[in-house]
Specification:
Number of domains: 2
CATH class of the largest domain: Alpha Beta
Largest sheet: 6 strands, antiparallel
CATH topology of the largest domain: Yope Regulator, Chain: A
Shape: elongated
Low-confidence stretches: none
Mean pLDDT: 83
Strand order of the largest sheet: 1-2-3-4-6-5
Order of helices and strands: HEEEEHEEHEEHHHHHHE
CATH architecture of the largest domain: 2-Layer Sandwich
Distance between the termini: 23 Å
Number of helices: 9
């Protein structure tokens, strides 16, 4: 049993369907709860008009506390992203909000468990399917319609042009901007490895902006290009600065040999190179997670 499974089962009555993804019936309404390092995502499904959904979302956002909470209307109800200092504090916040919202929905006779979350139908044709990490109950006909929409979206994505040449140019542009920023900061006395994160972000942005498709090739290409450009920039700055010092001192020792033979310079050089590499990888990981989450939001995956 996972770390959170027992507590969530006891507090909300949900069962773990996947790793850190819980689903079940909370007081007559269908609910999926996803746990991540950023907090918890609550998906509360019900059948209602758009106006009623906005009312429920607004109530969930404002109930008890709205600190570190962001709530929006979803296709089949509402979705709320909740953060907090501890698992216990987030879970308490969720329960407080859920109880207010569930009472409101019950009083307004908003349909929940036992109904299709898309059309409100009841009967033996209801089935629970998985959309990415969210579980939802739909009528058989609604599942077929949703499948058609998803397949059409997949075909549209596959048909999108993918200009790798322009994408790579965009990645180089992003890395170059980051490199210039790194040099400017160095010249005024600052060395910020965080520039590597900026370079990766810009590389991803310009890759897509220039016509490259957002896929695994983009992630790998931007990572390699950003790392190479920033490491070479760091090397180039050291070569220019130390080379200038050696020239002034009429010292003919090769620059890299001098750097490696000087304990203080060698330490600073290796540190700066390593930090550029580490923060580039951090930027890549952050962009990959962001891209994956955006892709999941835009491209639905259906499973039963």
């Amino acid at each position: 049993m996972g770390l959170y499974t027992k507590k969530i089962q006891e507090a909300l009555g949900l069962n773990e369907k996947q790793n850190n993804v819980f689903y079940g019936d909370y007081k007559g309404y269908e609910m999926t709860l996803c746990i991540s390092q950023q907090g918890m995502d609550v998906f509360l499904n019900f059948y209602a008009s758009d106006e009623e959904k906005y009312s429920v979302a607004k109530l969930f956002q404002s109930a008890k506390t709205n600190k570190m909470v962001r709530t929006e209307v979803s296709i089949f109800g509402i979705h709320s992203m909740i953060n907090g200092m501890t698992f216990k504090s987030i879970l308490k916040k969720i329960i407080e909000k859920l109880d207010v919202v569930v009472d409101y929905m019950a009083q307004h006779e908003i349909l929940g468990v036992g109904h299709c979350m898309s059309c409100g139908a009841t009967g033996d044709n209801l089935q629970t399917i998985r959309l990415n990490d969210v579980y939802v109950t739909l009528d058989e006909e609604c599942v077929e319609k949703l499948t058609m929409v998803v397949n059409a979206a997949d075909q549209e994505f596959a048909a999108l042009p993918n200009n790798y040449g322009k994408g790579i140019a965009g990645a180089f542009l992003g890395a170059a901007i980051g490199a210039v920023a790194w040099v400017v900061l160095y010249m005024i006395g600052f060395v910020s490895a965080l520039i590597a994160v900026l370079a990766v972000f810009l590389g991803n942005y310009f890759w897509v902006k220039f016509g490259g498709k957002s896929n695994s090739v983009k992630t790998i290409s931007v990572a390699v290009i950003s790392l190479v450009v920033l490491v070479l920039t760091c090397l180039g700055v050291y070569v220019v600065v130390v080379g200038g010092m050696l020239a002034e001192a009429n010292n003919s020792t090769p620059v890299l040999e001098f750097i490696m033979s000087n304990k203080e310079l060698k330490g600073a050089f290796i540190y700066d190179m390593a930090m550029n590499a580490v923060f580039t990888l951090i930027g890549v990981a952050a962009q990959y997670a962001s891209t994956k989450k955006k892709d999941q939001a835009q491209r639905i995956r259906i499973s039963k």
